[in-house]
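Protocol step 4 of 6: structure prediction from sequence.
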Amino acid sequence: MQRIVLHHTAGGLKPTAFDKQHYHRLVDGDGEVQAGLHPISANAPGRQLTAGRYAAHTRGLNTGSIGVSMACMANAQWHDPRACKAFPTPVQVEAMIAEVARLCRAYSIPVDRRTVLSHAEVQTTLGIAQAGKWDFDYDPFGILDSRDPVRIGDMLRDRISAALGDVEPQAPRGPMPVIRRGSKGEAVAMAQRALGLAADGIFGPATETAVVAFQRKHELLPDGIVGRATWAALNLEN
């Protein structure tokens, strides 16, 4: 994956089923991170984007983009965003920052203006027209006296970069080997643990069956071979 785009749902402080169709990760008002309907791998580069089978969160920028949204801003008006009853809570904002930092670490996404940005920054920074989106051209912390989305984005990126120092790696840093039936070793054991199998380190028929089932569930090629795309899903989508 190449970037992360930050959003608000324009709903209440709890994500709805509709919200989960459009974002990969949603953070509620209590700071709980919830998974969306579609795996991150559904938006991976090289995948055909079929309506209803991927997270459609940013017009013209869904391929390679992870959509992370806070559930908030119901009935908000642009001229006074804080007047709404579902303004982001402090714990919610901090949880979003922590989750974005985790995803940056897991997918090796650098934190800069083109790779981690709010929906409000997309048109200005990347030149991809959006339909008047303004999440976030307001400061969810209430610190900045500015509605400049890039300046606000810079503040969020600073906090995400700081949070990266507190994030434990949740995926292998180096490239993982391609494993298939007959393979042996720690990589096989890692895949087995991720699949909920006994980790004996031997890629046999039961492991192959479990890999195929997992691949079908995550809309990957069900060939029973654990390559780059399947590793990404195994280590980051559970």
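Step 5 (inspection) to follow. Residues 90-107 form the longest helix (18 residues).
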